[in-house]
Amino acid sequence: xxxxxxxxxHTEQLGDEASVSDWTxxxxxxxxxxxxxxxxxxxxxxxxxxxxxxxARHKIPEAAAIVELTLRQLARLHLLAAPVESPADRSAKNRxxxxxxxxAAAMLPTIYSIVAPSPLAAQSRQGTPTLTAISPAQxxxxxxxxxxxxxxxxxxxxxxxxxxxxxxxxxxxxxxxxTSLTANFALDVAAALGARTVTVTTAGGTSGAQTFTINLxxxxxxxxxxxxxxxxxxxxxxxxxxxxxxxxxRGVAGFPSGNAGNGGRxxxxxxxxxxxxxxxxxxxxxxxxxxxxxxxxxxxxxxGTTGNGGGGGGGxxxxxxxxxxxxxxxxxxxGVGSAGGGATKEPAGGSAGVTARPLSSGAARAxxxxx
Length: 371
Description:
Elements: E1 9-14, E2 17-22, E3 27-31, H1 33-40, H2 48-57, H3 63-76, H4 95-100, E4 111-115, H5 119-124, E5 130-135, E6 138-140, E7 144-152, E8 160-163, E9 168-177, E10 180-187, E11 194-202, E12 205-206, E13 210-215, E14 222-224, E15 231-234, E16 241-247, E17 265-271, E18 277-281, E19 317-321, E20 324-329, E21 351-354
Parallel strand pairs: 6-13
Antiparallel strand pairs: 1-2, 2-3, 3-4, 5-7, 7-10, 8-11, 9-10, 11-12, 11-13, 14-21, 15-18, 16-17, 16-21, 18-19, 19-20
């Protein structure tokens, strides 16, 4: 079997010399020109005799003995795929023997070996990390905040970010460089309000702290008008309770006369989960009352007429969480001849809205963030 390099090695050429890394044993070997010349020809296809002939062409005396000595050194360092036996017709030659034969010391094979640190250990020598800034430095309950942290001595794949207290989960830590990293802070809807300390830890130690503040969600409001179809309202992050006011649609007057009724009004505070998508159906007006004809009821359950000029009943206004109704306000009845207002399918109607403030002045509103 001809000498062959171990597949666990990696070679870097450094002029006439070579650097051989053996990561399975965490070692790096520096080969002088003679040893590197032999090493490059350990390809499994070149015999020791052919390697010696190549050395001799470079004016290296006692080439066969030098190749034998080099291969023994490489095998002892586990750099060859299989041991190489010395020729049976002569004993192994050592450095002293070669020096005695007049071979210059500089021509002898020399291999220097060191223990290679792991990538983590190598980077940890940077020292204790520092943390000088975080941005943004605040977030609201229920939100996930992408935060950039700035400092020194961050280590790729070996840096953790810690936020004090409970209710904050740190994930997706990405170290872009030794001075910058990003992380997501997932803030629970019930996370305690106020300042938290943020630190960075590596094998070199733990940084000083920076402050991250958790706030209540900002108040806000939304009004929903009739559109003839279902609409949606998304509960803001951090909001767990909303105040809903719904007003049903007014009925339509009949022909030739007949007053219609107003829609109903309903107000309720309900518990919700953050980011829940609620369905809002704002009731619509019924069809006009015409002589000798029927009129359709308004959108979302308004009652229709049976003829004789009656107007259509107003539709209901409703807010649902999935299939669960949260608030329903009935539509108004129509004028003479109508089959009656209100919602024959869903009792709700008129107008609706979303607000983060208490009800005031009777305006149509639909939700209030819990404070």
